[in-house]
TrEMBL record, chains A, B:
Pfam families in UniProt: AIRS, AIRS_C
GO biological-process terms attached to the record: protein maturation
Protein name, entry field: Hydrogenase maturation carbamoyl dehydratase HypE
Domain PurM-like C-terminal, first and last residues per copy: 176-321
Matching PANTHER family: CARBAMOYL DEHYDRATASE HYPE, HYDROGENASE ISOENZYMES FORMATION PROTEIN HYPE
Length: 349, 349
């Protein structure tokens, strides 16, 4: 029982001048980072430099990756997948971004009173199939129910444990000037697929979510050559992931805009909605930062894998502008790709 | 990307004649069990017999306990603790109930838009202190924000990893006729503390939640003698936990009602509210089922620990009435202690 009195505790910083939670605090951009850095890390005793898609810890001599994510995507079923697919693949991918072989998942459900049980069943079925496809086992779970005014259908939180092979050391701090920046395929797909069926925003597109488990692709890459950093660019997109890496490693990232694989349907939808494809969420893509000597072999391995067939070199890490991402535009100029502030697309995952 | 079409999937059983989620599906009783057995286990490929507070798995040669729980308690701050304390202690305790030493926790927040950031901060502070008190590290996390109509303040989901010492084999199937049933102290305390400040139900009581981390108590017990089963009787209380054990092991459980440690304030509040103290949630107590030869030493070890000072023998496992819990009443009769159906006290944890 905690006996400390928190009643006079006040927020240490006026995050973006609001004393309250706003949607942007969940957007995976600058406001999310402030929340983590100003509130959670001081309370939990962590450090910013260690933030990655999953934590690597040791237990009983085994090196484990450990990660969790809550999923609140709206709608729960969208072109190409469901909240159940995301909940499994998203946590599998967070583990894979530490180079781990994902092994076990937990699942915790917060159900809104009145939700159709068949919807719960369809989500569970999707999770079971996704787990089988990713070769992980759903081994433990929990279910809570909240009254109809306090929830929204089904929220799923998964956590996962993976095993990090000996010698594998992947983390955002390992990016070095000269390293090559790779992306495994078309970007912006998941976000556009979800937005295309969002209430009030329906527009005609054939884009399907790219939700997929990336551990097999990662294993093929690690077998081909050294990898310094891996990241799956979900909320906040490629822009957020690259800014986080640049900041953690103290390097600059230089992109070539015309090399970014943005499919025409994503480009069209982003024009329509006023979005930057670099900030749109992906759920089946990864960014890899690899030493130049390893880049050709790693790129070949990616292209030989079904989930990396569209892999591209999109830029390099540089000593200039440390902590900053800069893109060479098609017109020959430069633009700064900043960390998104808040939320472009609420409840995208 | 899952390509299977679930649109025609229907619920395999009409759980309690409702096609929709009701509050009782989150109550930890018979309706929760139906949800798990009819929907989640078939989808996930698990088996009922293995259900315990945490799963025991192997990774890299290490034997790990793995568990998760979502916390949606209302109000978020209550006499004796907060949702932050519960989220840490609850998952620590689930790990401890496998005999594990808890090591690492993850935390995933679902924040309602508009929630005071100071409330988020107070909860984070409580989690950090509770983690330090339980000697676990909060190593990874996530934050999502949902619109104000879709959440309720702060929902926290924690998952945890613990290390199971060699030779420790604890699980509900290990209960045997002749085993002694112990409880570590006063029951019904947490549930009454939360209800005492629930909107619309305020009543005068001095009861404080018993939220506490039990891993130290468990370590002391395991050092003293063999333990077959451990369970922390949260939702559904002692009644639900003992019914689950009786069912998993195929034994009967015989209780002596006058030996149940129910403090007068809990008895009074339960009378007022029409509740059975055996069904009220605890957050800092455990039930242990131990072989008769080990019972005296384990009981002594419990009583020597601050969190087990009120430990009592409350009954025995018997070969009669397998799967059923029966209490000898104060008047000399017997009554069946059944698995609660739904939810006595919604959102108690």
């Amino acid at each position: 029982m905690t006996t400390v009195d928190f009643s006079n505790w006040t927020c240490p910083v006026p995050l973006r001048d609001t004393p309250n939670v706003v949607m942007g605090h969940g957007g995976g951009g600058a406001m999310s980072a402030e929340l983590v850095e100003q509130i959670f890390l001081p309370a939990f005793g962590g450090s910013v430099a260690d933030l990655a898609d999953s934590a690597v810890v040791t237990a009983g001599g085994a090196r484990l990756a450990f990660s969790t994510d809550s999923y609140v995507v709206k709608p729960m079923f969208f072109p190409g997948g469901s909240i159940g697919d995301l909940a499994v693949n998203g946590t599998v991918n967070d583990l894979a971004m530490s180079g781990a072989t994902p092994l076990y998942l937990s699942s915790a459900f917060i159900l809104q009173e009145g939700t159709d049980l068949a919807v719960v069943g369809r989500i569970a079925q999707a999770m079971g199939l996704a787990a089988a496809a990713a070769s992980v086992r759903l081994v433990t779970g929990d279910t809570k129910v909240v009254d109809s005014a306090s929830g929204d259908g089904v929220f799923v939180t998964t956590a996962g444990i993976g095993l990090v092979p000996p010698g594998v050391e992947i983390g955002p701090r390992r990016a070095r000037p000269g390293d090559v920046v790779l992306v495994s395929g078309d970007i912006g797909v998941h976000g556009v697929a979800v937005m295309s069926c969002r209430e009030g925003l329906s527009f005609g597109t054939s884009v399907l979510s790219d939700t997929a488990p990336l551990a097999g692709l990662v294993a093929a890459m690690l077998a081909a050559g050294e990898v310094h950093v891996l990241r799956d660019p979900t909320r906040g997109g490629v822009a957020a992931s690259l800014n986080e890496i640049a900041r953690a490693a103290g390097v600059g990232v230089s992109l070539v805009e015309r090399d970014l694989p943005v499919p025409p349907a994503v480009r069209d939808a982003c024009s329509l909605l006023g979005l930057d494809p670099l900030q749109v969420a992906n759920e089946g893509k990864l960014i890899a930062i690899v030493p130049p000597s390893a880049a050709p072999a790693v790129l070949d391995a990616m292209r030989a894998h079904p989930l990396g067939a569209g892999a591209q070199v999109i830029g390099t890490c540089v000593a200039e502008h440390p902590g900053m991402v800069v893109a060479q535009t098609a017109l020959g100029g430069n633009r700064v790709i900043s960390l998104p502030i808040g939320e472009q697309l609420p409840r995208i995952c």
